[in-house]
Amino acid sequence: LNGYKLCNAGDLYEYFDQSLPSELISETQMELFSSYRLQTSYNKFFKRVADIFVSLFLLIILSPLILLVALIIKLTSKGPVFYHQKRIGLYNKEFVMHKFRTMKTDAEKGKAMLTVKGDSRITAIGKIIRPIRIDELPQLINILKGEMSFVGPRPERRELMDKITEQHPLF
Q1: What is the pTM of this model?
Q2: Is 25 exposed, middle or buried (0-12, 13-18, 19+ CB in 10 A)?
Q3: Tens digits of per-residue pLDDT, 126-152?
Q4: Which residues contact 89 (CB under 8 A, 6 or more apart)?
């Protein structure tokens, strides 16, 4: 076309949004994506080594902050310092993810609930450490154990994963 590049909708999404909606991917393209393997044994090995070294380094460097936050949580609210939650990781494997507790004890009462703005279940310290993600520092242990990684999809709860998959089958 006389030096002009012809773009389809997928090209435009990828260019402007840096993503590609699943609705625009055909079955043949899905086969291409799934057969393209970034997860070679070489890449997996170096990714794991990097996860181990970075998580160990951060645990050592941030240990004073981790201890301080744990102490503040214990002194300012009733209940445990840590919150443990079942998540689904790689290959649909279930594991227990650790976080600092930022909500009142039994905030979900057995039912998965997303937080909303101004959520009354969030503790005073939770209002401070959640926005800056300090509550997620205990996940360095999960990374060290190989249950999570710094790079990759976010592990999610089974019940929320099922809801998301209903709306987005390629999730």
Answers
A1: 0.70
A2: middle
A3: 999 999 999 999 999 999 999 999 988
A4: 95, 147, 148, 155
